[in-house]
Design a protein that fits this description.
Radius of gyration: 20 Å
Order of helices and strands: HHEEEHHHHHHHHEEHEEEHHH
Strand content: 5-15%
CATH class: Mainly Alpha
Largest sheet: 3 strands, antiparallel
Strand order of the largest sheet: 1-2-3
CATH topology: Peroxidase, domain 1
Length: 376
């Protein structure tokens, strides 16, 4: 009951319309301070981050030795207190560590605690960039070649990590470095997806089923640039990118609802600003704003993007506007704007599908997903 009440309050508190929002201001620096404070006063859940470290501590660890993937998780050899990738924990003795559901829940809880502890990143939350990390790690999948996807964590390496679409994600990878150090048995691939799952749930989103079993790959598995969406394009481009992964029109629109979270940065993508007035809470406001707000081209020296007429503090990208100019897409925008429950159901399903792209679960014996318990 407490969790339900918390979620109900958060969505009600952050929901806004151009005419009535109590949270709108024209200043980027203060636009989100009141919602953040209000939310924290009423809810135990928090989201967090800190500025990215100057250098990433996530790198390839060589000489791992024998590793057998089984049961959707891993059997890992470890030595007491050696602090290596192969150790279970400092208190355990030498042997084979087999992570269980409760071990993954401990990782979830650690990430959630860090999200609550650290609040000096965008809009007071590291949650959106963790979702973006999991999204971009998964969205490189090509169903024809079977390459890419969340199995590999190849963004650790410069060819892929330096792709324009991945600019700024070193912040998310560095945020997770202490978690990887504390739980060295989990692969980067599983950790990134678990972090995205945690972030969605801790930001009042739907429950996302999680299956472990991903393995880390080396630099040779890096995918070519251009597999992720180009925000300056339109509907044809969107279909080309997402059909390649195996998604349909409905799923494209449902996945786009992740733009309820976070913001663009001029020094990363070139675009600038948040999509909604509540960028750290999962809602269906993205669809409502697409339909109900008046959007004009932003007059500035950056790439073409839209800004809301009412406050000029929100933005939409050309790929966002393609969802309302295309009739096949717009029917789903209409449905999700009217029914948040339907959006949550479809969003959970399509995010689960996205996060499992390229993972050979058929080679494991454990197929039952883990349902993580939120921390509040």
């Amino acid at each position: 009951m407490a969790t339900t009440a918390t979620r109900t309050f958060a969505r009600a508190a952050f929901r806004s319309t151009p005419a009535t929002s109590a949270f709108k201001t024209s200043s980027r620096n203060t636009s989100f301070s009141l919602p953040r404070q209000t939310f924290r006063q009423q809810s135990r859940r928090g989201y967090a981050s800190e500025p990215a470290a100057k250098s990433s501590s996530t790198g390839l660890i060589l000489g791992v030795g024998a590793l057998a993937i089984a049961g959707g998780a891993g059997y890992y050899y470890y030595s007491q207190g050696n602090g290596s990738l192969l150790s279970g924990s400092a208190s355990e003795t030498t042997g084979v560590f087999v992570p269980k559901q409760e071990d993954y829940q401990k990782v979830y809880n650690e990430i959630a605690a860090l999200l609550q502890e650290k609040d000096d990143y965008d809009d007071g939350s590291y949650g959106p960039v963790l979702v973006r990390l999991a999204w971009h790690a998964s969205g490189t999948y090509d169903k024809e070649t079977g390459t890419g996807g969340s199995n590999g964590a190849t963004m650790r390496f410069a060819p892929e990590g330096d792709h324009g679409a991945n600019a700024g994600l070193v912040a998310a990878r560095d945020f997770l470095a202490p978690v990887k150090a504390k739980f060295p048995w989990i692969t980067y691939s599983d950790l990134w997806i678990l972090a995205g799952t945690c972030a969605i749930q801790e930001m009042q989103g739907p429950t996302i089923p999680y299956r472990p079993g991903r393995v880390d790959k080396d630099i040779a598995a890096c995918t070519p640039d251009g597999r992720l969406p180009d925000a300056s394009q339109g509907n044809k481009h969107l279909r080309g990118i997402f059909y390649r992964m195996g998604f349909n029109d409905q799923e494209i629109v449902a996945l786009s609802g992740a733009h309820a979270l976070g913001r663009c940065h001029a020094d990363r993508s070139g675009f600038d600003g948040p999509w909604t007035f509540s960028p750290t809470v999962v809602t269906n406001e993205y669809y409502k704003l697409l339909l109900n707000e008046k959007w004009n081209w932003k007059k500035w020296n950056g790439p073409k993007q839209y800004e809301d007429k009412s406050t000029k503090t929100l933005m939409m990208l050309p790929t966002d506007m393609a969802l309302v100019s295309d009739k096949a897409f717009k029917q789903w925008v209409d449905k999700y704007a009217k029914d948040e429950g339907l959006f949550f159901k479809d969003f959970a399903a399509v995010v689960t599908k996205l996060f499992e792209l390229g993972v050979p679960f058929d080679e494991t014996t454990q197929q039952t997903p883990i349902t993580f318990k939120p921390t509040a």
